[in-house]
Fold these 2 entries.
Entry 1:
Amino acid sequence: MSETKIIGLFEKFLKKESLFENKSVLQSQHVPEELSHRDDQIDQIAAILAPALRNDKPSNLFLYGKTGTGKTVATKYISQKLTEVARTQGVPLKILYLNCKLKRVADTEYRLIAELTRMLGKNIPFTGLPTDEVYNSFFEVIEQQKGVVIIVLDEIDQLVAKAGDDIIYNLTRVNADLKHSQIALVGISNDLIFADNLDPRVKSSLSEEEIVFPPYNALQIQTILKNRADKAFKLDVIAPGVIQKCAAYAAREHGDARRALELLRVAAELAEREGQDLVSLKYVDHAEEKIEKDRMLEIVKTQPQQHKLTLYSICSLSEAPKIYTGDAYEVYREYCKQVSMRPLTQRRFSDIIGELDMLGIINAKVISKGRYGRTREISLSIGKHTLPKVEEILKETLMV
DNA sequence: CGAGATTCATGTGAAGTATACCTTTAGGCTTAA
DNA sequence: AAGCCTAAAGGTATACTTCACATGAATCTCGTA
């Protein structure tokens, strides 16, 4: 591309008016002024957490619901209001929000407590300290608050799956030793049956109160989208039917509002990039592909080397009708030799397959082939359009 | 022919090891009085 | 003498390995009809 051409492109970009009035309204972290269709839940949460304003410990709270049903946004919404009121009333109240899914941030006991302590302003090294030492620091900073601390643990199911439920138990018991402060837990889970596999003691203490977030239906998603679109876009840039289509797509997937918003935003971005001044229906389809692709690529990029190599082995077997752990491991060893990396044992390899499965990149289910043993049947859950790009990235970063 | 034993390939749990990183401590060096 | 830096010691979490045992249905075995 010649220089003049590039400059021409920039000029065109600047001349072209953006379709967006305020893009951040469509971002998933955005907390709107008004939350539609969640009045019941919000009232309940507010009622349960309200004692915090009188410096009493609120009940621990447990929120269930599929992804994109507004759990997180409702909690954040209430957190904002609560902290606001607390500040004006001079009540010492602290709300900590932490997403447990974040790998290498909050997926073990140590890391979780360390992160919480950091949030309260005391730095904790990533490793090296005894866990009870970290607990002590945590204790101290909590005690310094001299008030109620509400800890919101988003995607708590992920944490428990990886690190066990003692953490929660410990957290609920911390209160017994606190003199000047109290902590209350708010657990958020996408997994509806998660609590059933919990230690009964933990379960009873965590879910003193429970609130279920039902999925939105297509109509509700539409109103949500409309509300946000009005703020996010300039007048008349959305073709008729686009909002309905986004809502329909999302409703198909258990009423995931987050997904609907993302679809709308990405569709508009694509249209804008192509210099259109109208977001037409076809961009919604493109957006769906792009979102899927970006999500996969993001996950893949951030994997550690060994996981990448594991995934690459599976990719190169993806032509085969059935992939079994043993076969994948053979291929994996070959690649290890090629890039002169010391291969992991099959034991660990098996665990990594399990981890990749949890991430939703692959699908691995344990089957018994009777006389021919027991193994995992592995398949990729990467779409056709995305696979080449994924392989490319793996190849690049692995230098195969 | 059918119930029970066998078998295979790998899942899975527990315990041990290597590595990277933390704090503490002791010793040595510098500095200022 | 006090202050500062460095290196070693002692300790931890995490990722991984080693060892050992568990799994579960296709297949085999063998007694019975």
Note: The beta strands of chain A are 61-65, 93-99, 148-154, 182-189, 209-213, 323-324, 362-368, 374-380.
Entry 2:
Amino acid sequence: MILELSVAKPYDFAQSVCDHGWVQLAPCYWDKERQALRHVQCLGTGKVALLHISAENTADVVTLRIEVEADTPLTTAEQDDVRQNVHWMLKLDEDFSAFYERIHQHPPLQERMSSGRGRLLRSPTLFEDVVKTITTTNTTWRQTIGMVERIVNTLGEPYPANPELRAFPTPQQVAAADDAVFTGVLKLGYRGPYVQQLAREIVTGERDLESLKHSDLPPQELRKELKQIKGVGDYAANTLLMILGRYGELAVDSEVRSLVSRLYFNGEAVTEAQIQDTYRHWDEWKYLAYWFDA
DNA sequence: TTCCAGGGGTAGA
DNA sequence: TCTACCCATGGA
């Protein structure tokens, strides 16, 4: 089955997907030959679908082609589910016109982004993105890839036609996994208990994480909410604000320190205040200005 | 062996 | 609000 979505220009699908490291984390996969994003997802009905998302440029718009495979034909509701998931993952709901306007004053950024970049890839659920963000803390990117792969391959629902492909596990599936699996198989280190606790809070109804996806709280309030999650500190909260389309805070980590030091301070060590000052004038677009600043 | 990687929680001031 | 210390894991 083929579903379609149209996106206003400028929009560079391939660049936008690949601009975020998330594309390297299971259950995402970038198919270079087809220039397509492959994704395994568990729909609301529990059905597991395999998606191949690619783009076609026409004169006026970019048309996204979503090829969906599943063991039985998708119902109308399931088709809507797929469209909504893809719409969310690719941030098609966000308006970047104000940011594109701002970068006119910055030729390097303008040149880099004029094709329509900035819509950084995210996951269908906020649960998946919080877990992935926690696995990026105090570790290397290679280890993050491994942690997420083990979470998906161990706990995720398999795609029936090819059980080697799995969806990201639901909070229920994560909460049901015992401690031995966390320590012996998933090897998340001290992050394990944070992921377990989050999954349990969602399952018991103690925390309604997904409602934050469409929250109209001001960024600072939203940030407070995110920091209530154990394992989410300043860096993770600001990363998640970006995921939620709020770009006014920098997620300062060793990568940011290194890039700001190299670009603006001749390789000398930088303080948090120096980093903040460097991007202060970008106001509500600081995160994107940093992200594409190289 | 030690250090540290896309940090965060906690206790104590 | 700030600081010191601890937290698994694995590669350099």
Note: Residues 138-140, 142-143, 146-147, 183, 187-192 of chain A lie near DNA strand C (CB under 10 Å from a C1').
